[in-house]
Specification:
This protein is mainly alpha-helical. It contains 4 helices and no strands. It has a single domain, classed as 23S rRNA-intervening sequence (de novo design (two linked rop proteins)), CATH 1.20.1440. The termini are far apart. About 30% of the residues are buried.
């Protein structure tokens, strides 16, 4: 998906991967039962989308603001772990799908933690 209008945060690999994860969750949730539409389905989709949304929202701000939004993205990723586990326990997804979700979420949280550390290190260098 290329646009002639580009935003710098779109270059972040963690952003690109979080976009992909949100879309994968959206597709996966389509098989959840209708009774979950306003419960687990909605919660899982919102948490998954929130990862990329927080990266985008925090990027143009100060380092402190960006770190705050990276933390929110990590919280959302952790929420997705719980949603995936609930979906597995309710037999909406397979063990393999749960493992794939967990693998993606592990990668995303490591990348977000690394990005947060890089920003903090940059802050510390500029303060000395």
């Amino acid at each position: 998906m290329k646009s002639k209008y580009h935003f710098k945060f779109e270059d972040l690999i963690v952003y690109q991967k979080s976009i992909d994860f949100g879309e994968a969750v959206h597709i996966s949730c389509k098989k959840f039962p209708r009774e979950e539409l306003f419960a687990l389905t909605s919660q899982f989709r919102r948490a998954a989308d929130s990862i990329a949304l927080n990266i985008a929202e925090g990027y143009p701000g100060s380092d402190l603001q960006f770190i705050k939004h990276i933390n929110y993205a990590i919280y959302s990723a952790n929420e997705c772990v719980s949603c995936s586990t609930k979906a597995l326990l309710r037999a909406y997804i397979s063990e393999e799908e749960n493992e794939i979700n967990r693998q993606h979420l592990s990668e995303l949280t490591k990348m977000l933690s690394s990005l947060r550390k890089t920003i903090k290190n940059r802050q510390n260098k500029s303060n000395t």
